[in-house]
Amino acid sequence: MTLNNSNNKRKQKPQAFWLFFPAASLLAALAVPLSVWAVWSGSGWPAGLLGAGHGHELIFGFALALIAGYTLGPQTHTVIYPLFGLWLSARLSWTLFPHSLLAQLLGPSFALLMAWHVVPRFNAAKKWRNKMVGPLILLICLLAVVFWLSTTLAVARTFWLPGPFALMHSAIVGLLLLMTFIGGRLIAPAVAGTLEKKGIPLEARVQPRIESLLILALGCSIFFMVFPAANPLTGILLVLASGLIAVRTLRWKLWLCPERPDLLILALGYIWLAVGAFATGLALLRGQPLAPALHLITIGALGTLSSSVMLRLAWQRSHRKPPPAGEVLPIAALLAIAAFSRFLAGASPFSSPILLWLSASTWALAYLWVTARLLILAKHAKNRRK
């Protein structure tokens, strides 16, 4: 028996999320206040977080690490550690020396290598709605490559390529679609299981018709987002998607699950998707700057959903139960403050330094909290396996 247990431990593959989730959380906690400091202090350091740089790191660094941690699952040491090392090298080189050839190559290399390992995992899906996840992840990864090409003058002059900000806006809509899909697939069965224990049937679960419409509306928006002439159409599609997300959320009857704060916070993150999509669509229709509205997606939705998913998965693996209210509610509150204060700071956030620093500080505090909890939970899970 002892020999068999020893052999099983040696055969166990490390889970990607125990590596990528804490690292992604720490990156999120550090990148935002450092990006504000780089401009506010006048030092310009770190250079990689100036201008479009901080958005690049939160989309192609933070978000891609979340996708890697969530989708890779258990991997051999020869896969997981080189991949993580490439991600870490890309983050450090971009943050400190963004204009170096090394920094320009490492980020796209990680995105492509991650796609190589992740995308085939979704090939077995039968329904077209499930099949779209792999291509969507591949598209987000390819946008990291196109972002690099768009900053290379020789390539940009030879081929028409959207600018860096347009590409990031398209990537944010891609993340909006990915969060809409994965969030729905997490919330629906969890709510249904909770209500069934109370003897309450839930007829509206995945809601395939609404999900199909969301995929079509947001999928088209990803493409149209890089064409300014299509802004009215993109705006209409995003407003439509916002309404569909809201209806889908209401049909889950989450108010009947007060004993599951983890589900309520996931639902809050899902509502943030609707709020962010509506605000972005309205900004496009009115011809207003997109930055304030897009931050409702990246801070409110991505922040709330990512922190909830990371803690939920870590608690399930380490304690076999969902995270308690005292852990998820304060984090969601901090991220709500961060989202609202950044939105109120407007298109020229440095003219409202108090709001900007409030947003950066509450975001950083939330993710430092998440980082610490993930490390503690990882240690607990490791002790359980001994």
UniProtKB/TrEMBL annotation:
The chain crosses the membrane at residues 16-40, 52-72, 79-97, 103-124, 136-160, 166-188, 209-227, 233-251, 263-285, 291-315, 327-348, 354-376. It holds the Pfam family NnrS. It comes from the Bacteria. This is NnrS family protein. The keyword Ion transport does not apply. Keywords: Membrane, Transmembrane, Transmembrane helix.
